[in-house]
UniProtKB/TrEMBL annotation:
It comes from Myceligenerans pegani. Residues 31-50 are annotated as: Disordered. Keywords: Membrane, Signal, Transmembrane, Transmembrane helix. This is Integral membrane protein. Residues 1-26 form the signal peptide. The chain crosses the membrane at residues 83-111, 123-141, 153-173, 185-207, 219-238, 250-272, 278-299.
């Protein structure tokens, strides 16, 4: 069952990577409905262009985006990936299934590079490589010591409130910043990762509870409702993350943050860490830190981030 779950998660990673590239293209190429036209004065005034004024997504812009064919194709692939991932969660523990999705990182890098007809830079490849190797180590170290049990409704609600607060904090930090940039993208993608990690944990809890209490028990229905709300919040925030930065950065944050949140919730709620020795926890922590370093390396060296830093540099005026 574990091997089947890993295979399904790999298939889901392909869906998520393709979805991210498609939706990022739709988000970044859809004309903002409130963007003013440029005139000679605004064109000569730094920071006052119509493009700059329209960089903050609003409801009208979002509605225009979701009608795009590429966005709908990406949404379909994301839905298929989510369904495949949910089936995998029914077959294996959270800390085994979640990190496998890291393969979406190099896939998104390669797909974006192919689409743009340019080779990824060495910094991007190093960041993606660090992330992939670290999470692979995480999966191998987790697979042999993960056990599980059904948590109480109180513990599940408490965990949901805590993660919900983290999502709100990161989401507010990202939405408060205007324009495009790696910091805004990282904050929004971090909020999405926390939301999706909660979704995965609630799906796993619901599966465990359904086996003993039935599919229509209040606890199971509550977990499903909570997972649906977290998914919708994450789906809304991820569009803003795609608007703020490159798809590789968003995917990297999701594939690192989502497993970390899921593993923590799995250890706290499902008891998946009760049989894990201290040495394994040290290895898991090291792998998590290295994966995080990979994400920041990817964010720093991505061409979009380099271009954003170049735009912010003062231009010398020759008189």
């Amino acid at each position: 069952m574990t091997l089947i779950a890993v295979g399904l998660t790999l298939l889901g990673a392909v869906c998520f990577a393709a979805a991210s590239v498609l939706q990022h293209h739709a988000v970044t190429t859809t004309e903002h409905p409130d963007a003013p036209e440029l005139d000679e004065t605004s064109a000569s005034s730094p920071g006052q262009s119509g493009a700059a004024a329209a960089r903050h997504m609003n409801v009208r812009h979002l509605l225009a985006i979701v009608r795009r064919r590429r966005w709908l194709q990406g949404a379909g692939l994301a839905a298929a990936g989510s369904l495949i991932h949910a089936v995998a969660l029914l077959l294996a523990p959270l800390r085994v299934v979640q990190p496998v999705g890291v393969l979406a990182v190099p896939l998104a890098v390669l797909m974006s590079a192919w689409k743009a007809r340019r080779a990824p830079s060495r910094g991007v490849l190093i960041g993606a490589g660090l992330t992939v190797v670290s999470v692979a180590v995480f999966v191998v170290a987790s697979a042999g010591s993960a056990t599980t049990h059904t948590p109480s409704a109180t513990a599940t609600l408490t965990a949901g409130i805590v993660i919900g607060g983290i999502v709100a904090l990161l989401g507010f930090a990202g939405m408060a910043r205007r324009g495009r940039g790696p910091l805004r993208c990282l904050a929004l993608a971090g909020a999405v990762a926390a939301a999706y990690g909660l979704v995965s944990a609630l799906v796993r809890v619901a599966a465990q509870a359904a086996a003993s209490e039935g599919l229509l028990s209040p606890f199971v229905l509550g977990c499903v409702a909570g997972a649906l709300v977290a998914f919708l919040v994450g789906a809304w925030l991820v569009q803003h993350a795609f608007h703020a930065g490159a798809p590789e950065i968003v995917i990297a944050c999701l594939t690192v943050g989502d497993p970390l949140v899921a593993v923590i919730l799995g250890a706290v709620l499902l008891g998946e860490g009760t049989t894990t020795p201290i040495g394994a926890w040290v290895l898991l922590g090291t792998a998590a830190l290295t994966a995080t370093a990979g994400v920041f390396t990817l964010a720093h060296h991505h061409p979009d981030a380099v271009a954003a830093r170049a735009e912010q540099e003062p231009v010398a005026v020759v008189t």
